[in-house]
Amino acid sequence: MHCPFCRHPDSRVIDSRTSDDGLSIRRRRQCPQCGGRFSTVETASLNVIKRSGVIEPFSREKVMSGVRKACQGRPVTDADLAMLAQSVEEAVRQTGSSQIDANEIGLAILGPLRELDEVAFLRFASVYQAFESLEDFETAIEQLRVDHRDRRRAHDAAQVD
Ligand SMILES: [Zn+2]
Where are the zinc fingers (unnamed) (predicted)? Predict the structure, then answer.
């Protein structure tokens, strides 16, 4: 890319480091012409195809704001949401495709959100999966109950050993 100061078409990399989550590389660059220093961040492109057909870059911020609504009044912090958005990004990047359906992002949110807060999970699922009746809620709640029971059994079994 061009030097942002003098528009020289070339630059030299003087330092490069991978971000903590391993999803991006930050490079310190220096312009050989004016000596100006600047940084670039490189990430593999990941685009989301919205239901309307519009394509936009994946954004953790958007994941967080979508989930934040479902978490109103719940004991969920911004740090929790940031962690959730990161695991959603990792999950969708693991599919190996650079373009994903908005729908798949919703799916990738459900698992970690359920671990985070079951009430928020039910709220999010009811919107995302378009619950239409009380029965839909009952089915989802029953599924949570069954899983609780299974986990408790697994826990008890582990204690016996
Ligand atoms: Zn320059």
Answer: 3-34
Please state the φ and ψ torsions of residue 100, each to the nearest 5 degrees. -130, 155
Cα 55 to Cα 97: distance, rounded to the nearest angstrom:
14
Query: E strands, the chain, where?
Result: 12-18, 24-30, 37-43, 47-49, 55-57, 99-101
Ligand 1: distance of its center to the CA of 106 in Å? 43
Crossing angle of helices 60-70 and 118-128, in 10° steps, is 110
Sign of CA dihedral 5, 8, 12, 17: positive
Contact 86, 22 (CB under 8 A): no
The per-residue pLDDT for range 60-100, each reduced to its tens digit, is 999 999 999 999 999 999 999 999 999 999 999 888 888 99
Distance 8 CA to ligand 1 centre (A): 5
21-49 residue pLDDT tens: 788 899 999 999 999 999 999 888 899 99
Q: Which letter does DSSP use for residue 53 in this model?
A: S
CA 26 to ligand 1 center in whole angstroms: 19
Query: In angstroms, what is the span from residue 11 Cα to ligand 1's centroid?
Result: 8
Q: 24 C-alpha vs ligand 1 centroid, how far in Å?
A: 24
